[in-house]
Amino acid sequence: MEIVNTLGRRKSAVARIYLKEGKGKIVINDRELANYFPLEQLQYIVQQPLNIAEVADKYDITVNLQGGGIKGQAEALRLAIARAMVIVKPESKDALKSNRMLTRDPREVERKKPGQPGARRRFQFSKR
User: Each residue of 23-37: pLDDT tens digit?
Assistant: First the structure.
């Protein structure tokens, strides 16, 4: 099997992954998964597509992660892994799609407007 290359995005985070047959090792920016994402909740988010496709210990994944915060990076990585699973194991597409793993979350941070302290917040109104 050749190396499968996919991309995942969430907010301003970008995850590029390289998936190949192996023993289930996930390396993110030259660090282990448990070292890069110390919270178990984030590790669970990353491993969701592998568990749904039932191939958690069959593929090694090398990841380049850039931008965003820790949660956005985990969700970008989840999308990239789900897209790779569809390429490697096409029969898992229905299960991944029903669990909303293949949809890119379009929500982004709204820009700050001029003359206001935030995107929607206004300065306090003073009648006098």
Answer: 989 999 999 999 999
